[in-house]
Amino acid sequence: MFRRLTRNVMVGNVGIGSDYPISIQSMTNTDTRDVQATLEQIRKLTEAGCEIVRVAVPDMEAAEALKLIVKGSEIPVVADIHFDYRLALESIKNGVSKVRINPGNIGDKHRVGEVVSAAKDKGIPIRIGVNGGSLEKSLLEKYGGVTGAAIVESAMTHIDLLESCNFEDIIVALKSSDIRLTCEAYALLADRCNYPFHIGLTEAGTAFRGTIKSSMAMGSLLMNGYGDTMRISLTGDPVQEVKVGREILKSLHLRQFGIEFVSCPTCGRCQLNLEKIADELETRLEGVNKPITVAVMGCAVNGPGEAKEADIGIAGGKDSALLFKKGEIVGKYNENEIVDVLYAEIMKL
Ligand code: SF4
Fold first, then answer.
1. Atom in ligand 1 nearest the alpha carbon of residue 302
2. How confident is the model at residue 302 (pLDDT cuts 50, 70, 90)?
3. What CA–CA distance (Å, rounded) separates 258 from 273?
4. Is the CB of 303 under 6 A from ligand 1?
5. Measured from the CA of 265, which atom of ligand 1 is nearest?
6. What pLDDT shows up at residue 159?
7. What is the mean pLDDT of residues 184-202?
8. Among 262, 263, 270, which is best to mutate for testing ligand 1, by the most ligand atoms less than 8 A from CB?
9. Residues pairing with 258 in the sheet
10. What is d(CA 120, CA 169) in angstroms, rounded to the nearest whole number?
11. How many angstroms separate the alpha carbon of residue 283 from the centre of ligand 1?
12. Of 121, 69, 128, which is closest to residue 92 (Cα–Cα)?
């Protein structure tokens, strides 16, 4: 698949840019000042496959807490800063691997320069995060509201400010809750710079709606070659964001995480409880990281074809199923033993 060529930057040990796989990140929703709760959430996110984690830094106490958070986290920690450049300086001092900041919001050039020189000293990048919901008033007036061009102009102002301080370890995010607007903005910015893109849809919604909206937006951006790191925003447990992000990358064959599942929706021809089999198997295989495809199919219409294509699979019959391995039928099993047999065979592969 086409991928836009970009500069590469390092966030801790994770590379971001076209030379590296598209990474998955998330953001904690604990109180950053509560080190224990934040580290516990980071641990769960890491276990789910999160590769970079961002934490909000609303005050100096939170910036100070970063010292312990960075020490206790297995993955790079990013400080999310708004307005106060001193929070950025303290966060950088405390070891974060990246800061997310809008240079234009933190005061005069002298203050921006201080943040830049601290970032340079530590060799960490700065992410510019422009959000359609908080665009400068002057741009809203100039463009008559939030438009792709307005978002890009805002981003370019921030980029120019960093470049004027001779800083180029930049990652850019252009976010809005509107899919078309987000895609339009990234396409416009792609013509203006070669910095890597952090992609995501902001305020996407709760797990169900947010997953659909995010998948459409991310799918469209990724298929056009845009995106070097991704955060799915969902209201609720951030672990869900990581799972959705991984599935999106997996579906487009951009990353390989664990097993690829194929299962049919079932219909009136299905004569076994396929939903139960698929659910049980998926749960048992969570965390099994094998680069294989497993097909769980309901009947003889499409079942044998899909099961043969997969590394292993079943095609359902009456209260039973045929087991296929590497394209060959290797047995017939009763419905109640299928999950155990499939699991055991998959572990042998
Ligand atoms: Fe229906 Fe068979 Fe297709 Fe499943 S594989 S949807 S049971 S026709």
1. 5
2. confident
3. 24
4. yes
5. 6
6. 95
7. 96
8. 270
9. none
10. 9
11. 22
12. 121
**Ligand 1 centroid, distance to 304 Cα (angstroms):** 11
**CA distances in angstroms from 339 to 86, 220, 297, 342, listed in the order given:** 56, 36, 13, 5
CB proximity list for 323: less than 8 A, separation 6 or greater: 312, 313, 314, 329, 330, 331, 332, 333, 338, 341, 342, 345
Using a 6 Å cutoff on CB, does residue 272 contact ligand 1? no
Pocket flag, ligand 1, residue 265 (CB < 6 Å): yes
CA of 262 to the centre of ligand 1 (A): 12
Give the Å distance between the CA of 244 and the centre of ligand 1. 26
Contact, 185 vs 141, CB < 8 A? no
Residue bearing tokens 């013509």: 191
pLDDT at position 133 is 85
Does ligand 1 come within 6 angstroms of the Cβ of 301?
yes
Check if the beta carbon of residue 79 is closer than 8 Å to that of residue 45: no
The distance of Cα 155 from the centroid of its chain, to the nearest Å, equals 21
Strand order in the sheet with 320-325: 260-263, 293-297, 312-316, 320-325, 328-334
- What is the Cα–Cα distance from 214 to 299, expressed in whole angstroms? 33
Identity of residue 1 = M
Q: Tell me the three state secondary structure of residue 206.
A: strand
Phi, psi of 156 (to 5 degrees): -65, -35
